[in-house]
Amino acid sequence: MAIQWRGPVPASNHAVGRGGSSVELIVDHWTVVMFEGAIRRFMDPASILSAHYVIGSDGRIAQLVSEDDTAYHAGVFSVNQRSIGIEHEAGPAMPPSDALYAASARLHADIASRYGLALEVGTTVLPHHAIVPTECPGTLDLDRIVREALEEDDMFTEEDRRKLNRVYDHLEAYEPLVWTTRLQRWLAKAFGGGLPNADLSGPDVETGQPFDAKTASRR
């Protein structure tokens, strides 16, 4: 999971440390404005607002406040001290996208694993409007986020997740054609080494012809 550091936000928009509190919950929001607009708002010293993370409709994740510090997102300072705030690029005119849900699920699962949280809407995962009167986070489906986070968490051990994150970050650095070719070659070698259930069907990304594991492994 690739996270881009876009902080720190101004001193007026967060508090250093958590005042002795530990992370007990996640508070979810929607931005209403576009991804970059939300970040500009949090970087404005006059806003006195921030969130730990902003997730884009394309699935990218930006971090603006360290998890060790208190972001000003929930509207109640004591809740801010005990929570991680996540903003989602969505609003009345921007329905939440599938990519956004997938990225949010991964982030929720990661946070839960690191802080020992049992993800549950209404207890450890709260909509902003559960804390103060607001429409936020609107139509954002927290049940879907938690469901997908739990499904992902069930699939992999922590060691699996660390390895997959390293692979994902490495592949993300390449254009799709390049990394898919590299991945196909790796799978071909793995298949030759004894992965009987490996499915290498599909076209060769270089030739467009049916994928030939033996040929690809010799390239």
Description:
- The structure is a single chain.
- The protein has helices spanning 35-43, 77-82, 98-115, 142-155, 158-172, 176-192, 213-217, and strands at residues 3-5, 14-15, 25-30, 53-55, 61-63, 70-71, 83-88, 125-127.
- It folds into 2 domains: 3-150, Lysozyme-like, CATH 3.40.80.10; 156-187.
- The radius of gyration is 20 Å and the shape is globular.
- The model is unreliable at 193-198 (pLDDT under 50).
- The chain has 219 residues and is of the alpha/beta class.
- The chain has 7 helices and 8 strands.
- The protein is 38% helix and 13% strand.
- The strands form 2 sheets. The protein has a 6-stranded mixed beta sheet with strand order 1-5-4-7-3-8, sandwiched between helices. A two-stranded antiparallel ribbon has the order 2-6.
- A hairpin with a 5-residue loop joins strand 4 and strand 5.
Care to count the β-strands?
Answer: 8
CATH topology of the largest domain: Lysozyme-like
Pattern of helices and strands: EEEHEEEHEHEHHHH
What would you give as the CATH superfamily of the largest domain?
Peptidoglycan recognition protein-like
Mean pLDDT: 84
**Helix content class:** 25-40%
Note the gap between the termini: 30 Å
User: What structural class should be given to the helix and strand makeup?
Assistant: alpha/beta
**Number of helices, counting only DSSP H or I runs of 4 residues or more:** 7
Major β-sheet strand ordering: 1-5-4-7-3-8
Which radius of gyration do the C-alpha atoms yield? Answer: 20 Å
Residue runs with pLDDT of under 50 for 5 or more positions? 193-198
CATH architecture of the largest domain: 3-Layer(aba) Sandwich
From the spread of the alpha carbons, the general shape counts as globular
Q: In percent, how much strand structure appears in the residues? A: 5-15%
How many structural units, i.e. domains? 2
CATH class of the largest domain equals: Alpha Beta
Instruction: Name the assembly state.
Output: single chain
The major pleated sheet works out as: 6 strands, mixed
